[in-house]
Amino acid sequence: MERISAYQAGLIGVVCVVAITAIHVPAQMMAFAKQHIYLSCLAGALVSAFSLWLLSRISFRFPQHDLFEALITRFSVFGRIISFSYLLFFFFVLVRDIRVITDFTNLFMLQRTPVIVLALLYVISAVLIARGGIEILARMTELFVPIMIILALFFPLLLAKFVNFAAFQPLLDVDWTGVGLGTWYVIPYIGEIILLPFLFVKQTFRARHGLSGLFLGTFLLLIVLVMELLVLGVEITPRMLFPTYALARQIEITDFLDRLDLFMFSLYLPTVMIKISYSLYFICH
After folding, report:
1. Residue 107 above 50 pLDDT?
2. What whole-number distance in Å separates Cα of residue 238 and Cα of residue 14?
């Protein structure tokens, strides 16, 4: 029987929180939350943490069943409706993620390649990865996610000379409505970590399995959001489709290493493929 270790579960949580969220949602969040975008991110993480805790309690209540079996066992008809809703949600997430990474690649890397060709390449890659099973996916996660974590941690160091702390002002003038709208935008993305409990087939899901990944992923996401605020600013970031890539393009080391964004994207792309493969595996199995 394929099993997931606690360490692997934490890394899967990081993938769910960061992989697509970091490049797709910052512009929408900052359009409303402005300089208090970090409050929206923290609020979204708290809501997701509560969801993980609830799912862990269900897992303890039905230790011999996965969450789908528990739903159908407890509520024969309504449980099947809820189960189908979960499948529909993650199918939408799968399609959205493929579209986001396809548009990103077409816009910045392969402008002359038809979108349908890029999408098919990503779909075929995800199918081949997902066919390996959850253990293979978890081992790929162990290999590539630490690289993504290191890249995010080096962001502040590499962009230090562009930082403008005045972007935090006015610090105490909080637009709570804007913060709430920013939270509304980010909750569906961070909340995708609820995929994790459903991957624990015949295993009891413990809240700490997911919370470690949730908190680490939120921390990395905060680094990206704050650096976009301090480097690109409140006015510019909401106008961009992919502000995180624009942020990466600011990085330069001496006079001859000024296109590190391509190198960073090549290290980041495998984590996006892993996230897409997890969604596909979940829907199929």
Report:
1. yes
2. 25
